[in-house]
Write a structure and sequence with these properties.
By secondary structure, the protein is α+β, with helices and mostly antiparallel strands. The protein contains seven helices and four strands; from the N terminus they run ββααααβαβαα.
Length: 171
Amino acid sequence: MSTTYLDYSFYNLLFRLPVNIQDRKTSVATWLGSRIILFYLRLRIQELVKQCYPTKIERADDWLINEMLRASYDPGVPVVLESIFSFNLSIPLNYLLEDVKENVIIIQGMKDPISDSNATVAMLKEHCDGVIIKKIDAGHCPHDEVPELVNSIICDWIHRVESNILAGFSE
């Protein structure tokens, strides 16, 4: 298989993206949609990031915004965004998680502006029996917005999982 380089420009931004033509095919709508979303995100990154930190907006500082903007120029970003238009999880989430039960913890920021937190929690409770869900007063990035709380939750969960494992060995 040979690798071909596709060159395209969008608002004077040149990307040189290696693509294996035989393995990767996308529609024009998917290709164009991903680039429009990327352009939109770059234009509004500061506003969007600040919305993701509703309880501690100061955590969305210039350094974070600049790092996210820098990362948006990685040549693989358009390919990732294309997956939004063609995402197909052929294996249901509850099937993937059915054997791990209490060994999975989900920490959900209930003020997440990107997803409907209440619907997400309800779906997880309905379809993923045994998964531990912790709802906290934070946005989309609770690990960065309230790291002390998230770290405490994770440490408690690890202790509980380890205790259960050790209890299983002593039986």
